C-alpha cells in the first residue's frame, strides 16, 4: 500500500511540472471528453457507494476499488495529455 501511495504521489508531483506547448483542436476535444467521462463515472460511483446495502466491509471495499480505478484513469488521461503536448513540439 505504501508503494502505491508513493507512486501516485510521485506521478502527481511530476505532472505539476508542465511543459507549455500548443495542442491540436482534436487533442483538446479529447481532453474535454475524458474529463467529462471521468466526472460522470465519479458521480455514478458516489451514487452507488451511497446506496450500498451490503455489509460495511463490502461497501468500503467497493469505495476503495472505485477510488483506485478513478485515480488510475485520471493519471492515464493526464499522461496522454502531457504526451500530446510534448509530441507537438
Describe the protein's architecture and organization.
The chain has 89 residues and is mainly α. The protein has 3 helices and no strands. It has helices spanning 2-15, 25-50, 56-87. The longest helix has 32 residues, at 56-87. The chain is flat and about 50 Å long. 0% of the residues are buried. The model has no long low-confidence stretch (mean pLDDT 84).
Structural class: mainly alpha
Estimated share of beta-strand residues: under 5%
How far is it from the N-terminal to the C-terminal residue, by CA?
A: 37 Å
Strand elements, count: 0
Looking at how many chains there are and whether they match, the oligomeric state comes to: single chain
Q: Low-confidence stretches at least 5 residues in length (pLDDT < 50)?
A: none
Number of helices: 3
Portion of residues in helices?
over 70%
Radius of gyration: 16 Å
Task: Report the biggest beta sheet as strand number plus sense, adding barrel if it closes.
Answer: none
Query: How would you spell out the order of helices and strands?
Result: HHH
Shape: flat
Mean pLDDT: 84
Which SSEs are present, and which pair or pack?
Blueprint: H1 2-15, H2 25-50, H3 56-87
Helix pairs in contact: 1-3, 2-3
Short descriptors:
81% helix, flat, 3 helices, 89 residues, mainly alpha, single chain
In short:
By secondary structure, the chain is an all-alpha fold.
Amino acid at each position: 500500500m505504501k508503494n502505491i501511495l508513493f507512486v501516485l504521489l510521485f506521478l502527481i508531483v511530476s505532472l505539476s511540472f508542465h511543459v507549455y506547448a500548443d495542442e491540436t483542436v482534436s487533442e483538446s476535444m479529447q481532453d474535454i471528453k475524458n474529463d467529462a467521462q471521468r466526472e460522470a463515472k465519479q458521480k455514478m460511483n458516489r451514487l452507488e457507494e451511497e446506496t450500498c446495502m451490503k455489509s460495511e466491509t463490502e461497501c468500503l471495499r467497493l469505495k476503495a476499488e472505485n477510488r483506485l480505478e478513478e485515480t488510475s484513469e485520471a493519471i492515464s488521461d493526464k499522461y496522454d495529455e502531457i504526451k500530446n503536448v510534448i509530441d507537438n513540439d
